[in-house]
Amino acid sequence: MRYLPHTLDEVAEMLSVVGLKHLEDLFKPIPASLRSKKGLAIPGPLTEWELEERIAEIADIMASTEKMKIFLGAGSYRHYIPESVRYLLSRSEFSTSYTPYQPEISQGTLQAIFEYQTLVSRLLGMDMANASIYDGATSLSEAVLMAIRITRKRKVAVSRLIHPNYRRVLETYLTPAGYDIVELPYLETGRTDISSLNDFEDIAAVAVQSPNFMGMIEDLKMVREKTKDRNTLLICAFSEPLAYGLLKPPGAFGADIACGEGQSFGISQSFGGPALGMFAFKKDYVRNAPGRLVGQTTDLDGNRGYVLTLATREQHIRREKATSNICTNQGLCALASAMYMASIGGTGIKELARLNYDKAAYLKEGLRKKGLKLKFDGPTFNEFVVEYPKGAYQNLMKKGMVIGLPLEPFYPELAGQYLVCVTETIKKEDMDNLIKEM
Amino acid sequence: MSQELRTNGIVQDEPLLWEKGRKGRDGYSMPLRDVEKASIDESLLGDGPDFPDLSEVDVVRHYTRLSQWNFGVDTGMYPLGSCTMKYNPKINEKLSSYIGLTRSHPLLPAHLSQGTLRLLYELESYLCEITGMDAVSLQPAAGAHGELAGMLIFHAYHKSKGKKRNKILIPDTAHGTNPASASLCGFQAVVVKSSEKGILSHETVAELMDEDTAGIMVTNPNTLGLFEKNIRKIADIVHEKGGLVYADGANMNAVMGIVQMGKIGVDVMHLNLHKTFSTPHGGGGPGAGPVCVKKELEKFLPVPRIRKVKDAYALVENIPESIGKLHTFYGNFSVLVRAYCYILSMGPEGLKAVSQHAVLNANYIKEKLKDHFHIPYDRPCMHECVFTDKFQEKHHVSTLDIAKRMIDYGIHPPTIYFPLVVHGAMMIEPPETESKEEIDRLIAVLKIIAKEAEDNPEIVRNAPQFARMRRLDEVTAARKPVLIG
Amino acid sequence: MTEEDLNVKEINELILPNDLFYTEAHEWAKTEKNSVKIGITDYAQDQLGDIVFVELPQVGDTFEKGSVFGSLESVKAVSEIYMPVSGKVTAINTALADSPELVNQDPYAAWIIEISPTDLSETDTLMKKDAYLKQLKG
Fold this sequence. Notes:
Chain B has 485 residues and is an alpha/beta fold. Chain B has helices at residues 56-67, 90-96, 99-102, 114-131, 143-160, 177-184, 202-208, 231-240, 333-369, 399-408, 436-455, 457-461, 474-479, and strands at residues 135-137, 167-171, 188-192, 213-219, 244-248, 268-270, 291-293, 305-309, 312-316, 385-387, 415-416, 426-428. In chain B, helix 4 packs parallel to helix 9 (333-369) and helix 7 (202-208) packs parallel to helix 8. Classes of the chains: A alpha/beta (438), B alpha/beta (485), C alpha+beta (138).
């Protein structure tokens, strides 16, 4: 077998060095009652060629979605990924390398992650960023736990317009320790209603998402005003970072922590994973931050280099008092997003963000002109909510279109409403076809 | 053997991204604009992020040069204990990148996602069989995430029994993620000292186990590379007082097809697919940490679960006692695809051979090096073995120095200073994908370094000398952190 | 223990002033009228290696004898610091925020906190130099 290099002779030779006759003898120290009597009932082995056929068969079942026109976002976005990014990621010095604990032979990874931290900080307008969390949902959860540590308060106010799955994961993280989540409702305008919050005494943080799950741009300035000087942190979440190529980023509003999903930048959708938890924060909080951090330094010869730093926050040193239990993160995905940001550049990202905005606005306007009702009135980025005529969603699916995400399973009060996403991968003619069908 | 100290070749310096480029360059093919500019409220507009403008060639050269500063499994051996740095099959890279898989949106209606759901469902069943457990969730994105899931399941289980338990037993040899995950669930870690044999004794566990203890977290084989042979008795003691047994499956590479954890008293465990199941480490991730449970605990697994009804696969969300969601969607899907491919490529006999060869490799190394390096537990080991720097202490050469000197010989250092119970620990795990030549070379290099420690300790203490960088100033990096440029 | 321990001082090289109290956990205490200054001994700073961060409590915090009031971090380890006697924190050495290395350079000049003690007689349980030296020699 090509991944098992030892020949029978070599096995025999090595066994004799160890003083044993058979491979089974190696396991004699394990009591017989604990050892399996039967072989594993799993399929295989398949040759490389049979394996390829098997996966092709599975991928083909999915091929129907390739030919379909899909107007879905909601935390997973279809964006073009430059071939150069895909190619560079396949360099095995990046993909097969270990965590850079030995900096002398990991400068490739370390400089790349230092660059990633820097680009993310600039994107979000924040002081500094870590080397990644698993995804948007866990990034938000870590942000809330960090705010709880910093403020020593036990409650957090969370907007109902944050991605429903992010909120569910947050609940999973907070439940066992008994922290409280206060849900902030939303207004007719499709933005968070913070008026219900008057007593910030025990509120560690207010968390909002902008653009929010409905695609609406939140009034972060107002939220910051309300939480200022109260030992209450402002956490700004996001699921579509491309928005900050166009809009003011969380840092511009004085957010304490900016956290969300980076999948849009160079990472395939791949049925939801692997993703990329971007996480950035104010520099005063650095010793409370979760996750790995790469820092700049020099070596014995005075050359500039990079190392993992502030490791005393982490689980392998601090153990039960660590800022997080995270060890393996989304390293290669962070690298992909840095390569994407490097490729698209400061000029390109503004243009691409504007294109997304304009395309979505075109569809929004086209549907409105056809008499459809847009649930929320206000500026959006590349997603918006619309009420489709009864049966339209099912009929158009038969014609090869998935025209949005039905919101009822997530927001029972929004039955009949659909979340529609338009990125640069949607053509004008696709949108015209959709509008025509209304 | 001749001294093969080389890391020469064409390796260039390369500045930071923002130290390159020119405004107006681009490395991205901007899609055509086929719509007019729409109006926008100017007050919402930002200045855009301060990213450099680079050409495609700038970007390709940049990352190509950076990659050449890295060591990877494809470059050479990583004998890192408890990391299982095995070869990452290339066919799995190709297959996980099929467009039918990479373009799939996780929120498509189930009838349009039958391919991906089928793959996940089948992978769950393979992992159940390999671990001897009854149900699996593939949602956790890493081992620590799987451990958190396990601890949440403990919490939910005890809650369902109407009793809140506050403590959890954790061996002194445990990986740091164990107590960190336990404490996230509000459990207080109670340390269980391993016996002088290096494994847990059931008497010690019996002394500590009570009805305020949720259970025990074990690693088996443990982080000293030794099989916890008292596991059955320990499980009985914990179960008898109403507790559960959690197994950290990081060291599964030693026992596939030989021991099924679910049959020896384990109730919940996680696997590290980026260790045992060959998915690439990616310089720090992404990995995957599926959590596996016995039937009684299935209802607590994260949702959604994947069910097969007749010939169709469905996602089921409505399971009231589930611990909830741990990931936005279903976990690190394309990592799971690679593990699926690996299991099918190896088959049942192949996986067993993996464990047999892994254990053979570690015992072979232990035998060959025992006169050169001190062995704290001189007994047959499993897939990894632990040495210390005791013999080299008198020359003022430490485990760290030895590790750094290995770099000069083109081998990545082993795991050092872990587990904490062994002073100056050096843990070596030579995965089954390493050939006998590579293993003999590792042995030869370590023998040379042991000799250097005696005859020329300075050269070991000043290592590495041939890597791209010398030892770095981690003190200043921590005192005055510079995390962005 | 960390990688640093092969470069540590010999016991007879350690600096241990006569006029201080010492604890088992390697803190020193200096009593002055009705206040006590607290720091760590030369042995402790030597074992810890280069200190990169000092976690200080806040002025006004109170702690019982034997409880943790702060910590010292090196690159690879964290060491907690314990109260030699009970009291309320009246001052913290803020210079250590920018220059934690002061603790390595002169652990006796680089006091960490100053407290007003609740019960000065608690110093009866502390060691003087000779007893501490004996403990170090083991």
